[in-house]
Amino acid sequence: MAAVFWPPMPTSPLAMPRTEPPCNIAWPASGLLFSTMSPQNMVMVTGPPGSMVTATCPSTPIAPHRSPSATLRSPSSSSSGIHMPQKVLISVNSAPAILNVSPLPSCRATASEDANIVMVGSRTFERMHKLGRGSFATVWQVREKSTVGNKTVEEAPIWALKVSSPENEQMLEACLLEAEILQQLAFLLPDEIMAANRVPRYVAHTVSGARPAGCPRPAASPRHGQVLVAMSKLEGKPLDQWLYGVDENRMKTITMSELFDGPLPGGQFATKNFAGACTTAAALLSQMTPVFTALSRIAYHRDVSAHNFLIREDAGVEEFSLLDFGLAVRASTWEAECRNKSICGDPRYFTPAAWTLMALGKKATQAMPDSTVMLRQYEKRIDHFSFGILVLEVLFALWRGPEWEDAMLGQEKEALATAQKAWRDFWAEAVGLFQKFHGDGPSATRRALIQANVLSQYKDKLTALCSALRLAHDAVQSGLPALVFKIVAELADPQGTMCWQDIKASLDDTEAAFGQTKVRSNTEADAENVASAQQGSALVPATEDAAWNWSSALESTASWVAMRLTRNMLGLALVGTDKPKIKKGSRRRKTALC
């Protein structure tokens, strides 16, 4: 089913520019969004899956418009296709439009690596250089080819272009959903949030080179074509590398003593006092809560982790951005689907329910005494948990520790020391599972979760952490650090109830105190670092490496690495854990998307 809007709305920020008639506008019958839906500006046509809808308008051009409420999809059966090659549809304002539905041409070009000029929708881009590559996608830096009259504009905008090659229908849907999410976030997020580059800004997307089943294709051509998504190119350094000075691959083998006590040269590890670490954690909460508030209306990210965040410093202020929506799922269907889908994301940030489902399967998990609370977190608060763990990681990685807080009262220092120990106990368990998974494989990880009672230990250590965070909240004297501990405890706790709107309201109420604490904590931290350096201490203020940017993040943790990780190694499809072994020679169930 395709929707065509009439007439184009010039006030829409994503409306196509008006052109002189006649015009031909074509787009894939899958994944495109539109704006206002009403009988005055919409006509409906149907066509077989993978068809192209071409609109010809002799007077006023028809333009596709976007909206967070409607998605263009093709029906599952081709029997409902239009049999007449062309049909004239008259709208309320009597402007005729000629619509033609036809299969995608088998010779339609894809964006090959040797082609520098790429068409995405109605826009043209020139590839400049490769930013990063994953298992199923490549990201390029591109320059838009703009023209004024017959002349090419040299100072054209620079964007990022993600070219994904989905291997099946599920991956194709995931690619299109990523584009849809960016598109809807641009619609939902306030202008100041988009201007701050908290997420990539949607530019355009298209499907190129898809072929109907049975259609012959070159060996190197993807069966489902390629999904091209143009977006803004974000600057910054991957958060995990900014913290530790090492990338995700190094974390697979790092020892716990090195992780907690260093030395980790090149990062920001253990460079701030308590107030400074809390200020950074609060900035992360404050900046990203509006993003998650908007995102929760659309989808769950499912891969909230340090390698999917960028950090940059702007006039002494730390600014954060969230990347990679390639593993996201629709919020409207996730609750019904989640128990039958495989586990996705970074294992360090898995909820207890994710580990339990992996180890025991759906039926055994549902039979556990705490299943209601545990599964509620997985179904409704999966991003809450991962983000809470990330904020704790940032706070405790930056903080030098209670032994450096000479001016802190004894009761407060003791409560914070207890919270730090509880965090280290939990994080060592999470990182240990992450390392075991990568080192020994999923089967060994599953056995360890069951046989060595690791699953119970993980849940017990999370419970102890949440209790310690609440005790620290009660003991801390300063308003902002106390609020940070309250929020992260609610985010991480399976019984937590604080929603994104509550977090934003709490942070807004302390905005004045936040600014005062930031100035004071940064000044104190800088003074202490200078004093330590004068005394010959190894503690020195880390500097931002200007060479790090968005391309480094993509090169180290390209978007689709996570997809391959969870498809090939985390291939413990939950629907299979509760079923008997498949007999030899029987048809095997296809693995899930993740």
Give your account of this protein's structure.
- This protein is an alpha+beta fold and 594 residues long.
- Helices cover 41% and strands 17% of the residues.
- The protein has helices spanning 169-188, 191-195, 239-244, 248-251, 256-261, 274-295, 331-337, 352-360, 362-366, 371-380, 382-398, 410-440, 442-451, 454-475, 479-492, 500-509, 511-534, 550-556, 559-569, 574-577, and strands at residues 2-5, 23-28, 42-45, 51-57, 87-90, 96-103, 117-120, 123-133, 137-144, 146-148, 151-153, 158-164, 202-208, 226-232, 237-238, 299-300, 309-314, 317-322, 329-330.
- Strand 8 and strand 9 (137-144) form a beta hairpin.
- It is globular, with a radius of gyration of 26 Å.
- The model is unreliable at 1-110, 516-527 and 529-594 (pLDDT under 50).
| Main β-sheet description | 6 strands, antiparallel
Across the major sheet, the strand order is 7-8-9-12-14-13
Structural class: alpha+beta
Query: If helices are DSSP runs of H or I spanning 4 or more residues, what is the number of helices?
Result: 20
Q: Strand content of the residues, in percent? A: 15-25%
Low-confidence stretches: 1-110, 516-527, 529-594
Distance between the termini: 28 Å
The whole-angstrom Rg is 26 Å
Overall geometry comes to globular
